[in-house]
Design a protein that fits this description.
By secondary structure, the protein is mostly helical. It has 17 helices and no strands. It comes from Dietzia timorensis.
């Protein structure tokens, strides 16, 4: 953890997501236009909504860029640590257990956490909001659950699909905070930003486009490798269908295995979103950490080799560029997160179907209901 924060993150990378945030928040605080970047280049762009600009503006108050970046790194590192602690609480793993340092080691070795810190982006806070949302839902603090979700949506809409979880359980309370917080923050940002209209005129159309660089979604990979659009569309539809079937079959776990249901359903939904959306970047996989942590649960759907091959695909730091086999190396380098997201959905769906169609294994789903075999 110290190595990732003090060495890798402070050293930085060519990719610097914080530079655009710092410059935009400085312009915002000075009353100037925020959305002034050239979107034709491949450098990181400031694509946050006015609501995020307001919430991130305190970092722009720091006069020295280097100190502001270090504070931002430390802030995200603390958020990631807090998220892991909440997940340990959710999975009932004691802090004195050998599993605790093992989990921290595994988490900080992932590409998701490492590059979140090295690239200096805000995904650490998003991860903390996800973990807090799960804990509060599980503890039936439904009104409070909307607060971390609303905060995350005010910054970026990445976790919006997870509102499916309270929706499936007909819990409306989390939606109050999840909707009210981003609306209020957006209204404040719109009023305080001199060029708020540019967010809809320039940024929103740009984000809907499929780009062929740093994009592991099916559409992005298809565009990069020249795959016919009808085939990409068919694959996207297939992923949606598989994810929908998996979510339906997982409903049987929501009463007797709630933590498993929350974590696994969220993982399936988010992996599907990464695949079918216009942009899927590998470090988004941080939100799949709760899914892989379900391995500690007896009824887990990731206690198999295929699930961990998938995890390697979307968590690995390995670089696959090859001087001897340049095309094949580039193919693996660009597609291993795509492969991982797809394989984890397929794996979970296969295990669910395997359990569903076997009377004895159906006890894994609803042990309180007698099966014909038990009768």
């Amino acid at each position: 953890m110290i190595h990732r924060v003090v060495i890798r993150a402070v050293n930085g990378s060519v990719t610097n997501d914080f530079g655009t945030v710092y410059a935009a928040t400085r312009r915002f605080l000075d009353g100037g236009p925020v959305y002034v970047e050239n979107l034709q280049v491949v450098d990181p762009h400031y694509l946050y909504a006015p609501s995020a600009t307001v919430l991130l503006s305190p970092f722009g108050m720091i006069d020295m860029y280097t100190y502001a970046r270090w504070i931002f790194i430390a802030f995200n590192a603390l958020c990631i640590i807090g998220a892991v602690l909440l997940l340990l609480r959710l999975f009932k793993i004691s802090l004195s257990s050998y599993a605790t340092p093992a989990v921290f080691l595994a988490v900080f070795c992932t590409e998701s956490v490492t590059n979140t810190l090295v690239f200096t982006n805000i995904n650490g806070l998003i991860f903390l909001c996800q973990a807090a949302f799960f804990v509060l839902l599980h503890e039936r603090r439904l009104w409070a659950a909307g607060i971390p979700m609303g905060l995350s949506l005010a910054i970026k809409p990445m976790l919006a699909p997870l509102l499916l979880l309270p929706l499936l359980r007909r819990q409306w309370q989390p939606f109050v905070g999840a909707v009210a917080i981003p609306l209020v923050a957006f209204a404040a940002g719109w009023w305080l930003t001199s060029d708020g209209k540019s967010y809809f005129d320039i940024i929103t159309p740009y984000m809907s486009e499929v780009r062929d660089y740093y994009n592991s979604s099916l559409a992005g990979a298809g565009l990069y490798f020249g795959v016919p659009e009808p085939l990409i569309l068919a694959l996207r539809i297939l992923v949606i269908v598989m994810a929908a079937v998996a979510v339906y079959l997982l409903m049987g776990y929501r009463h007797n295995h709630e933590v498993l249901w929350l974590s696994t359903t969220s993982g399936v939904v988010m992996a599907a979103v990464f695949l079918v959306s216009s942009l899927g970047q590998m470090y988004y996989s941080m939100v799949l950490i709760p899914l892989m942590l379900t391995v500690v649960l007896r009824e887990s759907l990731v206690r198999n080799a295929a699930a961990w091959v998938a995890a390697y695909g979307f968590f690995t730091m390995d670089m696959w560029e090859s001087e001897r086999w340049p095309f094949h190396g580039r193919l693996v380098e660009f597609l291993h997160p795509t492969f991982g997201w797809l394989l984890i959905i397929v794996t979970i769906l296969v295990v669910l179907l395997w359990r569903y169609f076997d009377p004895e294994r159906r006890q894994h789903i609803t042990p309180s209901v007698k099966t014909p075999a038990a009768t």
